[in-house]
Q: What sequence folds into this?
């Protein structure tokens, strides 16, 4: 077990460093809503890319994905690579999101949809869906922190203390200076995540006997997990159920699509995509290898979500490296949590409220940030055992915005009524199936039904109604700028 005193000292040092960055960020703020939520749209590719990566590759990776690898084997890599392939959507949609936000001054993705369809109710529906389905994903971050800190200390750091620590860090870093504070701390946290994980996996493999021995033992003792479906988790049904919603993560999740609004120019966007793809591929491989290392160094776990804590206290990882990795996972969770909280704050302040002054938008956003973090903390304390299902449910729920997003840029005939029917109808179906009928997120019927219903509603209702007169025509109005920048 790791000493709680050592962990608290490391967390305190990390927190002080983060607070220094956050305080420095406050000196750059101008007091406008655009500055608070988007950092004045002034970020370069490196910081934006690391912030995007830190927000995306959260505690889910070394808690849930590692646990899924431990439980089901190599199918976890296939699942995550489907998500990685979905990042290719950035090549098509990132220029369009950025150009539209810059031209019309959008601050939230929901606001962009509302303007495209000429309806404030579309914006409100998208914002409401974000609130409903991102809450579970926030919960996974808190639960990951709780499982980790309590696990590596044998319960000496309680679940409550662990969750409270994550909540406090996320709240302070977000409330200080908004997106600028979040992005700067994200960039540092992304580096901590990657370096600590790479060091830890190196020591774990060395403890097994090196890469050759690791591969030999894995093939001899885990041959079933090196095939699909493996021990049974990664059946075709499960794979489809989890992979389909995650493929669209880059455009369906507003906390990451909003990152496309913060860039200062198109060159920065291209560099950002490069950094995100590079970071994502490396971190995915590390998380899966970490799971196979845990099978050898910490076998026989009943709760696979504890694979990372078990490996950290197995004796294979030196204490300083283990502490650094714990900080990395803590950083990943906090990064995702504060990014989601800030995005939800922007959507409430900009889309659910109307005609509010900038100061009122910022104050409202800060209140929402506190509410989101408290809600996620309480839910994590009560539901920590269903951490992986909560994350997957959020992805399936957020998929309801995908037809409206694609149609916004590529189908001039799409209407506000079609977007509303698609978003609200799909959200209602997802809640009914998962929460009332009890359809598991591991059942492809959930994702296929929700996705299919959204698409049918969007197309059918759009064909039966007319676009609003004040609706924007993204396809036509952005074409010249897209051609100018050589975008698809």
A:
């Amino acid at each position: 077990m790791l000493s709680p005193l050592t962990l608290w000292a490391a967390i305190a040092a990390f927190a002080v460093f983060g607070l220094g960055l956050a305080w420095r960020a406050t000196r750059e703020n101008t007091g406008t809503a655009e500055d608070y939520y988007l950092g004045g749209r002034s970020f370069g590719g490196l910081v934006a890319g690391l912030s995007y990566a830190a927000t995306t590759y959260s505690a889910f990776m070394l808690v849930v994905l590692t646990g899924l690898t431990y439980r089901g084997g190599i199918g976890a890599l296939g699942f995550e690579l489907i998500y990685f392939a979905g990042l290719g959507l950035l090549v098509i949609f990132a220029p369009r999101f950025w150009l539209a936000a810059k031209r019309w001054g959008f601050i939230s993705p929901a606001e962009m949809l509302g303007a495209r369809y000429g309806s404030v109710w579309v914006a409100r529906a998208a914002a409401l869906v974000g609130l409903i389905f991102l809450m579970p994903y926030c919960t996974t971050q808190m639960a990951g922190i709780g499982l980790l800190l309590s696990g590596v200390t044998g319960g000496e750091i309680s679940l409550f203390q662990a969750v409270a620590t994550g909540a406090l860090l996320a709240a302070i870093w977000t409330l200080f200076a908004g997106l600028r504070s979040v992005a700067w701390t994200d960039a540092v946290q992304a580096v901590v995540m990657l370096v600590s994980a790479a060091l830890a996996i190196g020591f774990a493999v060395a403890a097994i006997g090196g890469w050759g021995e690791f591969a030999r033992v894995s093939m001899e003792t885990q041959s079933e997990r090196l095939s699909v479906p493996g021990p049974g988790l990664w059946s075709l049904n499960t794979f489809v159920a989890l992979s389909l919603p995650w493929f669209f993560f880059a455009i369906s999740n507003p906390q990451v699509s909003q990152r496309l609004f913060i860039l200062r120019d198109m060159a920065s966007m291209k560099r950002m995509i490069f950094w995100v793809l590079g970071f994502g591929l490396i971190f995915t491989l590390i998380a899966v290898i970490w799971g196979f290392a845990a099978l050898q160094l910490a076998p026989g776990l009943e709760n696979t979500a504890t694979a990372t804590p078990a490996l950290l206290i197995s004796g294979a990882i030196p204490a300083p490296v283990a502490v650094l990795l714990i900080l990395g996972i803590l950083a990943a969770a906090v990064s995702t949590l504060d990014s989601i909280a800030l995005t939800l704050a922007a959507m409430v302040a900009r889309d659910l409220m109307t005609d509010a002054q900038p100061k009122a938008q910022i104050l409202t956003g800060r209140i929402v940030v506190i509410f989101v973090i408290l809600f996620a903390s309480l839910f994590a304390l009560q539901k920590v055992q269903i951490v992986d299902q909560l994350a997957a449910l959020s992805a399936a729920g957020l998929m309801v915005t995908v037809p409206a997003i694609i149609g916004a840029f590529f189908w001039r005939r799409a209407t506000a009524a079609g977007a509303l029917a698609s978003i609200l109808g799909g959200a209602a179906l997802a809640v009914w199936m998962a929460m009332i009928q009890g359809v598991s997120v591991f059942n492809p019927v959930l994702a296929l039904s929700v996705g299919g219903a959204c698409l049918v509603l969007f197309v059918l209702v759009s064909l039966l109604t007319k676009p609003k007169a004040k609706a924007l025509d993204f396809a036509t109005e952005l074409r010249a700028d897209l051609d100018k920048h050589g975008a698809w």
In short: Residues 4-386 form a domain with the Sodium/glucose cotransporter fold (CATH 1.20.1730.10). Residues 103 and 160 are 45 Å apart (CA to CA). The mean pLDDT is 88.
